[in-house]
Amino acid sequence: MEFFVARSRLTLIFSLFFFLSLCFRSSSSLSSSPTDLKILTAERRIDLASHIIRVVLTLKVQNDGASPASDVLLAFPPAHAKDLALIHAAEVAGKKRKKTLHPLDVKTSNNAEGPNGAKLYSISLRSPLSTGGSVSLEVSYVLTQSLEPFPVEISQSEPQLVLYRDSALILSPYEIKQQTTVIRTPSTKVESFTRVEPSTHLRTELKYGPYEDQPAFSYTPIVVHFENNNPFAVVEELVREIEISHWGNLQVTEHYTLVHNGARHKGGFSRVEYQSRPTYSGVASFKHLLVKLPPRVHSVYYRDNIGNISTSHLRTGYSKSEMEIEPRYPLLGGWKATFVIGYGLPLEDVLFESADGKRYLNFSFGCPIAETLVNKITNKVVLPEGSKNPSVAVPFSVEQRAETSYSYLDIVGRPVVVLEKENVVPEHNSLFQVYYDFHPMFMLAEPLMLISVFFFLFVAALAYIHMDISIRK
């Protein structure tokens, strides 16, 4: 009997080992080592027109390995990895006007870091790339805080110069047969740039390459020193409160802490010179900001701690609304301003009902100020009292928590969904949804409470009038 038990256990162990080996082989057959893939052509375009850097990388990848490849790795130097705000990838089908982009998933790679602390990201292909096959990819990503003011301090009459550090060669875990890098500056005023032959400078474009047969993880540092007087508008913190009322209105209140993140201002400030010579004095400052609001806004206000700020212009319409605002003073490098923007929206524009009976809010996540970086944004969605089972759908990763707020005539409080994210760029201005259950009977709670209060006051007053409390007969 013991012999049969031992034999059955041994058979079970061998079966389990065989099953695990099959799983390992099937998973490893769809993955490939970096040496199995090769990049035939690579083109990188870097846009330095703003303080938010946008890069488009076009790759043609070929599989020279013996097994299909299910993913492609990207590499970023440590300095860029920490400033990476957003990354998208797509598979390219067709050419030029008939080009079609198929979005692909991008996530942090499970592999170890590359040489010199390079950060790896993994692109999941739509279908495994067979041996000898090739695929065209288009990767776009956004970098923040990657422009370094140099000099770090400037006077009111000086332009703003910045440094951009990168590599003439595209950092990649694969061999690259042919590659080029094109850097576009906001103006023709380029003080200096690192020359890595072949390299050319024509007006607002710097071109590095073409370079051929570069091994994996090749890196040649370059520095570009150029003039950039565009507003370096950074919102250190944006707290937005979205309050839903089922009586027909949505109220939005946004608290801003805005700073000019460019070269710090040194010396005094002359408003006379600033206004009389606007093309030479304070060219790196900004005093106008464009706020893109939802269409059909109403009851718009713009104020700070002192009071209402009247220097704003609002244009509303059924397709869009724009408000041009001016802080109380021009913002030079290192200067800050705090203010509040509030407005109302018709509820039918942003609140809908899903097929399963849930109600959901459909609203934009990011900052409405054009071309602005937000270090930290907090969206607080205040649901009506009585709402249950809130859930959130956001197209990117955020931190989420729940709170409870109390307002007039509340008994149990209103559920609040809090969404937080750091390093937010204009590309994060995507719609997000907050789903919740709500019974219409809860809409009668506050009116019935008011009616009851007035009824009891009326009864008390009536009783007091007809009550004789005198001691004389």
SSE map:
Elements: H1 2-29, E1 37-47, E2 53-63, E3 69-76, H2 78-81, E4 84-93, E5 100-108, E6 119-129, E7 134-143, E8 147-149, E9 153-154, E10 161-167, E11 175-184, E12 190-193, E13 199-202, E14 205-214, E15 221-227, E16 233-245, E17 249-260, E18 264-265, H3 271-276, E19 289-293, E20 298-303, E21 312-315, E22 321-325, E23 336-346, E24 351-353, E25 359-364, E26 373-382, E27 388-393, E28 399-405, E29 414-424, E30 431-437, H4 445-466
Parallel strand pairs: 1-11, 9-18, 16-26
Antiparallel strand pairs: 1-2, 2-7, 3-6, 4-5, 4-7, 5-6, 8-10, 10-15, 11-14, 12-15, 13-14, 16-17, 17-23, 19-22, 20-23, 21-22, 24-25, 25-30, 26-29, 27-30, 28-29
Basic shape? flat
Strand content: over 45%
| Overall average pLDDT | 87
First-last Cα distance: 109 Å
Unreliable residue runs: 1-32
Q: State the helical fraction.
A: 10-25%
Structural class: mainly beta
Total helix count? 4
Largest sheet: 10 strands, mixed
Strand order of the largest sheet: 3-6-5-4-7-2-1-11-14-13
Number of DSSP strand runs = 30
Indicate the radius of gyration in whole angstroms: 30 Å
